[in-house]
Amino acid sequence: MKLLLATSIVVAVALGVSTWFSQATIDDIIDSQLKLARDTREGSIRRESDLAVEAVANAVALPLVQNTYADIPPLLASALKHDESSSDKRMQWLAVIDNDHQVVASAGKVPGGAELAKLQASIATTKAVSRVAAASPTEWVYGTRSCSTTSRSAS
């Protein structure tokens, strides 16, 4: 009888430990799959945002080079309107800044002079598109040196 009781207790403990390890393994697998999915989505958002910034930069490059600044605001407004009509709604504002660090054109709620200058300095780069963190963890400022286009995107 004692042997049967001892065997039952050992089997119950072994079953409990096995269940605990199985649950811990399942939790680890779920966590790693969630992290992988999140990283994949974030990468996709970054790539789409890079492409959006490049598209706006390419659209305003010719008017900027030709000093036809009046042609730029409708392009920026159109880009914001297109983003707003999509399900993304990532762009909050756009600004085109010339080589003298003057805002040539803008659309949306562009930050004030000091904050805009700080953001512009933070994206100064030679890369095609650069991205730096903005006010919150889900906001990024994108920029391109080719024609000094700056935008804020909420991911």
How much beta, percentage-wise? 15-25%
Query: Overall mean pLDDT score?
Result: 80
Percentage of residues assigned to helices: 55-70%
The structure class reads alpha+beta
Write the CATH fold name: Beta-Lactamase
Describe the structure.
With 155 residues, this protein is of the alpha+beta class. It has a single domain (2-154), classed as Beta-Lactamase (2-Layer Sandwich). The protein contains 3 helices and 5 strands, in the order ααββαβββ. The radius of gyration is 26 Å and the shape is rod-shaped.
Primary descriptors:
single chain; 155 residues; alpha+beta; Beta-Lactamase; 5-stranded antiparallel beta sheet; 3 helices; 5 strands; 19% strand; rod-shaped
List the helices and strands and how they pair.
Elements: H1 2-65, H2 72-85, E1 91-97, E2 103-108, H3 113-122, E3 130-133, E4 139-144, E5 149-154
Antiparallel strand pairs: 1-2, 1-5, 3-4, 4-5
Helix pairs in contact: 1-2
Give a concise summary.
The protein has helices spanning about 1-65, 70-85, 115-120; strands at about 90-95, 105-110, 130-135, 140-145, 150-155. With about 160 residues, it is of the alpha+beta class.
